[in-house]
Amino acid sequence: MNPLTGYLLVAALLFSIGLAGALTRRNAILVLIGIELMLNAANLNLIAFWRYGPHPEALTGMMFAIFSIAVAAAEAAVGLGLVISIHRHAHTTDLDAMNRMRG
Amino acid sequence: MSVVFYLLAALTVAGGLAAVMLKNTVHCALALTVAFAGLALFFLDLDAQFAGFAQILVYIGAVAILVVFAILLTKGSETPKEGVYSRNWLAGLAIAAGVFAVLGWAVLQSARVLPGPEGTPTATPVVTVLDIGHALMGRYVLPLEIVALLLTAALIGAVIVAMHEKEGAK
Amino acid sequence: MQETISFAPHLAASPITGILWLIPTVPIVASGVIALLKQPKRKTAATLAIASLSFSLLLSLVAFAHVVAGWAHGVAVRETVNFTWIQVGTASVDLGWVLDPLAAVMLVMVAFVGLLIFIYSTGYMEHDENFTRFFCFMSLFAGAMLGVVIANSLLLLFIFWELVGLTSYLLIGFWYQKPAAAAAAKKAFLTTKVGDVFFLLGMVWLFAQTGTLLFYNNGAGSLEFGALKGLLAQPGAWGLTAAGAIGLLIFAGAAGKSGQFPLHVWLPDAMEGPTPVSALIHAATMVAAGVYLIARVYPLMQAGALAGGTTAALTVVTWVGAFTAVFAALIAVAQNDIKRILAYSTVSQLGYMMAGLGMGGVAVGMFHLITHGFFKALLFLGAGSVIHGCHEEQDIRRMGGLRADMPLTFFTYAIGMLALCGFPLLFSGFWSKDGILEAAKHWTVAKTPFYLLVFGALLTAFYMTRQVGYVFFGYWRGKKPAHESPAVITVPLAILAFFAMALGLIGTPAWPWFRAFLDGRAVGFDWHGFAEPGLLGLMATSTVVVFLGLGLGWRLYGGQAPTPEEPDVLEKAAPVAWGWLRDRLYVDELYGVTVIAFYWWWARVADWLDRRVWGGVVAGVAWAFRGWAQLNQFLDNNVVDGSFDKGCDELASGGGLLAAVQTGRVQTYLRILALSVVALAAILIWSSLP
Questions:
Q1: B52 vs A23, A93, B42, B58, CA distance in Å?
Q2: CA nearest A35 in C: which residue?
Q3: How many domains does chain B contain in total?
Q4: What is the CATH number of the domain that holds B48?
């Protein structure tokens, strides 16, 4: 088996774990944790492709991962800020309790 | 596939699983740190030293701490009496399993066309921080500037969103 | 069709081409800065806008001088700077800018007219509280328009084109408190988008065929020989070549922006915006962008034509143009709003330009574009001055006798009006319109466009005389007496008036400087230019036609224009036809009962489907699940033991989930999203398996 396949499988598993967390947990912070895991799994893919791709000297995958880390940091800051702000308004971080947009 | 790979994979996956499954939210955040650390080690294993250390600094150093702060600020560490999983959590789990099935299927399908272990490049690509610095200041300078702007905007935005409204401001 | 470039082409970029990008960038940056200013910073906003556009004008003049200098030394300047924007595998999307005679004359015209209008606006908008926002939008518009002019890539042109459309929307709806203005802005945006969709299709097709969207790229551009040859070999649809079909798609976009029939409906309504906006955008520059676009892609439109012949695409352009010219001129005869008359006149003149492009080539159409840009800006600004002087009155029936009250405005307006009518010899409009008529006369395909355009010229002279008779002659029919406008308004008028006359000098048959400049040929002064067979006869014809129109108008409206309560002179003579023309030949109403009614009906159907069918399906599925669950429960309770318990619960909750898809819970949405994406991915992967 090519090593790349192994990394891709681990990344896929991690992505699915993150997705499962985002889809099943009640707490909004845990949903954000799941999303962070998904982003990280994508980063692992980028790095693995860079390492085993035909042109590692081009640095494309690596750069992509670095920028992705930076963007994820921004996303985490804003996301958690929103959670805190919602908590102040609704006094809960329970997503099931937030259904004011129900149709 | 080396032993290191299997160890790291076990560590990361276990950390990830614990992060989304544990009852106590603070424990989840700590497990998340473990998963982040496992990924950082993965990056180092893949000869991406810079990305690995960036991962440690940004995720373990900042994001995980931020998550802990958010948990403490929202008193989220108490286990709610309705349980930690949302309604219809089974559907979510099924969908996540489906996603994994499709991803894994696609990876395994493509594995057939990849060369075996002996056909892959084993030489370590030499990438110094100098190279990365040149790339960031050269070809990628515009994305770098945009990311800088984005981070500034996110910083200000997060502060404004999370800031206490002054008394009587409404 | 002089496409033979006798001069050696010059391609290497000079310093001025290198910094050409500053011309659109500086006003756009200025607009961004103005957007950050606070509302009371009026002086700063105006200064910034005017300074940035002055800078652009300066650079444009330098670029123009560079092109002229090269031309004088026998070099057809066409300098490009290209760079890669997006690289995907081996394909790349390139952008770039170009400096050639076409771009150079257009740059100078847009920057110069724009600057005059900016200065005029400081006076006209003086009392508007959103003065700062106005200059922010105007500056953005000027930058976007200059970007359209220098673009060397269809994609870059399209980006700026859409930016121009956006600012047009913002400026038409500048007084958004007025419902009519908000509606007009929306209408303009939607109508031009109809054309833009075709434009986009043409662009995608062009990219698919040639692999590049650059116009000129040292022989590898999409307008150069190699790409055109490939496009001609490729069959398109309905017996057209791919070149012809793409040309027609692009023309649809140009027709939207330039208000050609049947997409002209937005332009008269756009007069709800402030008058300087009407002058800058809906007379001199933006609407000319469509004409400019056709001139820019002219090699594509013309590809496949035999010597002196024409192509299907150009034939369509000609017919649409000629029809629009007469159609809009007819409507203009029966309008009573001073700006609306000018708007229909603009539509009509744009038709002339299109017809000129279709029959005579780039130089003929572009010359009319440039002269029209000056005299129509003059007319609109004059109309603004009149409106200002008459205390925001726009109905020409409530004006009259203004030549005594507003002598400067009257004098300049008369010059603009005579230039528009094509008054012989002295005025630029005569020469540019004669160029189009001459091309029409020599057109080999059909003679009808020539007669249409001559008739249009008659109508033009007539409706302009009617307007001037109503506004400036006779006696004052309004309430408060009018007053002359301040110098900041009249000085730009005087400058424009000067150019409305002087510009004719560069396009006479004896000294066709403009034409030679665009075609890259040498030029000399030669009286024998007039001796071409049939030319003097044509000039005589057009002179007779103009005098006929002027005389007829003067006979009917000179000095005895009716009051608002009385019917128009023509209305008395032919009330039915007059009613048709006054109601703009019912094109809007036609759209109302066709396109809009269709969408309304379609929305109703969608609404009904949503409520009844999908709602019913969801409810039905839920009901079926519930029934199934109850059946199970019944079996469970009565037939089997508790092994079905779990299944029942799950089915019931599944039914609940389907019955209430709109739960308001983010996780539900997230689940559906994930499910759909994974299903899609599975289908894609599965279908691409060997």
A1: 28, 32, 8, 10
A2: C670
A3: 2
A4: 1.20.120.1200
